[in-house]
Amino acid sequence: xxxxxxxxxxxxxxxxxxxxxxxxxxxxxxxxxxxxxxxxxxxxxxxxxxxxxxxxxxxxxxxxxxxxxxxxxxxxxxxxxxxxxxxxxxxxxxxxxxxxxxxxxxxxxxxxxxxxxxxxxxxxxxxxxxxxxxxxxxxxxxxxxxxxxxxxxxxxxxxxxxxxxxxxxxxxxxxxxxxxxxxxxxxxxxxxxxxxxxxxxxxxxxxxxxxxxxxxxxxxxxxxxxxxxxxxxxxxxxxxxxxxxxxxxxxxxxxxxxxxxxxxxxxxxxxxxxxxxxxxxxxxxxxxxxxxxxxxxxxxxxxxxxxxxxxxxxxxxxxxxxxxxxxxxxxxxxxxxxxxxxxxxxxxxxxxxxxxxxxxxxxxxxxxxxxxxxxxxxxxxxxxxxxxxxxxxxxxxxxxxxxxxxxxxxxxxxxxxxxxxxxxxxxxxxxxxxxxxxxxxxxxxxxxxxxxxxxxxxxxxxxxxxxxxxxxxxxxxxxxxxxxxxxxxxxxxxxxxxxxxxxxxxxxxxxxxxxxxxxxxxxxxxxxxxxxxxxxx
Length: 537
Fold this sequence. Notes:
Elements: H1 3-15, H2 19-64, H3 66-74, H4 78-89, E1 94-101, E2 111-115, E3 122-133, E4 136-148, H5 150-198, H6 221-240, H7 243-318, H8 324-352, E5 360-364, H9 365-379, E6 385-389, E7 394-398, H10 399-416, E8 423-432, E9 435-442, H11 474-484, E10 488-493, E11 499-504
Parallel strand pairs: 6-8
Antiparallel strand pairs: 1-2, 1-4, 3-4, 5-7, 8-9, 9-11, 10-11
Helix pairs in contact: 1-5, 2-5, 3-4, 7-8, 8-11, 9-10, 10-11
């Protein structure tokens, strides 16, 4: 091919905004990127090599000059110091060297320097100069050497210019040649194929596609494209005869699909109506429950107040004449009415844990635990209880409900360690199977794990009232709060060795059963012996 033909084909490939120009730009960009990366790696390698040479030279100063400098400085031999400094300054890349005497008793210490210190493009190394006198070694001066990086940067800059110029020219010429090859072998034939395809009519017998070129010895990719197009056009023409039947069947399918969509919409509307109905029923049930709790509270308190009033009146009427048995009966009535009042309060507290919206926010549980334990200490100042507290334990919870939860668990721990020497309460968090688990544990009375399935049932106790007071509503309240936070709670304990209560948050889908696993009190781990409160509040 003549050079004029080559130039014309190349100019045509560059002028038209097609694949050829994109190939040229892509090759230039990729080659430039490769050049930049290779140049950067080479320059970095050369830079590190030059810096290493300078640093090795500075290390040689330490081993070669310091001993003689120490002797000269100790003898105050200025001429010898000057000669040694000149020897160091004549080393390659060294442009500044100075030595300064350090003596506390001398008001005007000796100081010599060659060259001028620079503020940039340098490496500065300070060498302390010591003098040995018998077994004593003390510093008598300091040597400061500054190596210039100017020559290093100049060499790197020259390499950058040479590399970029040579690589740029090579990349441009190779890109032009590849563009020419692509245009001659591919782009012109793609244009012919596009022209033939644009004239194709599905309703007419297909005309075979042929490329204007010398047939290669073996079929290449373009021949495969041409053969595939000719085969496809024949199949399309044959399929055209069946299009009307296919369109008819498709129309019937569309009608059936529309009918199915209408049925789905009807079922969805019916489902939404059922959801609204169930929601309204649930809201009504919650309102009735709240009303029932309010009524129970007030309707039960009135008879209790009357019983207590009559008891006081009877006690006042009998005065000091009643028998010991009468006093016993009156005290039993007082204790019973007080227990009933406490049960009503606990029942209301339990019902409130399932009411109200959750206001979830980030809460520092460690601060709340410390505050609650301090209130317990103020309430019972004679107790000596050690608090082992992990700091900065955070959780996304409802502040109001979780304060109630921590108060119940810590009050348990406080109560069930009352008969334990060196009582200890622990709060912290740990990772179990990739999830955060919080725990409150104590070394108190503990309980038998055989009865753990009854642990969270309301008004259930695992200890005698004569040993520990309470009515057994606290852990039921704790479980409901944990359920509302999408988590679960379980306990590990043994009699006399304390107990540990573990709880996690936001484990289950809100559509699942919130009571799931609520009685799962063990998961195969050994109880934590620095554990948390036991049972009941």
